[in-house]
Amino acid sequence: MNKWKTISIVLIFIVVVEGIIIFNQYRHVNLINNNSVNNSEQIQPAYAVTGPEYRLNPVIGSYLFIINSTTQFVKICNYMLIVAVVNINLTKVKEGDSFLLYPAINIGSVVSEALYNNPILNVTITCNKLFEQNRCQYLNFTIIANSPKNFEAYGGVTLLLSQKNLSATSLTHLCENTYLFTVFKSDGNPEEITLEFYIAPLSIGSKL
After folding, report:
1. Nearest Cα to Cα of residue 142 among 202, 200, 98, 83
2. Is the whole-model pTM more than 0.85?
3. Where are the transmembrane segments (predicted)?
């Protein structure tokens, strides 16, 4: 009888000790996770852009669904707005495809130091569908533009392909008066769409 009591006491002691260890491990993991979240939410230093940042060929790498990419310079009054342009072949791109891009960062923008030092967008196509309605053909095209540790921008457009020179602009607020502008353009060609990306003050970028 005493033997069974001794065994029971030992087992209870082991269970209690293991419970304490598991609790401490669980609490430690939670503290690490909480600290990680708090660190990621710290406000990053802002950087006022006094000189434009851009690449003449803004796309990083080679992709079968990209026809070409370039940089455009558009004069708005006394301001030179710089725009990264990408032409996409709609017959070759599929949902889930992505590409890397340098968006143009224009003078007067205020961005985080992390974004200024590493201005790369990972652009993912989330929808590329043609559909008909009332005997008209439409394109539904959407994307996500992600900048690690900075922001995630969503944009999309539904275009009537029988019309030319259509465009739509999606704005994502970055810092103070600065926005990421994502422009979708179509000339009525069901096989091609043009995307434009640029970071600029709202007062300038909205005039394009």
Report:
1. 98
2. no
3. 7-26
Question: In 10 A of CB 165, how many CB atoms?
Answer: 8
Q: Which residue has the tokens 């007062």?
A: 203
Average of pLDDT values for 49-70?
95
Q: What span, in angstroms and rounded, lies between the C-alpha atoms of 88 and 157?
A: 14
Q: What is the pLDDT of residues 76-124, one digit of tens each?
A: 888 999 999 999 999 999 999 999 999 999 999 999 888 888 899 999 9
Size (the chain), residues = 208
DSSP for 1-49 reads -HHHHHHHHHHHHHHHHHHHHHHHHHHHHHHHHHHHHHHHTSPPPEEE-
> In angstroms, what CA-CA distances link 191 with 90, 161, 178?
5, 10, 33
Query: Residues 60, 102: contact at Cβ < 8 Å?
Result: yes
Residue type for position 12: I
Q: Return the residue matching tokens 């704005």.
A: 171
Amino acid in the structure at residue 100: L
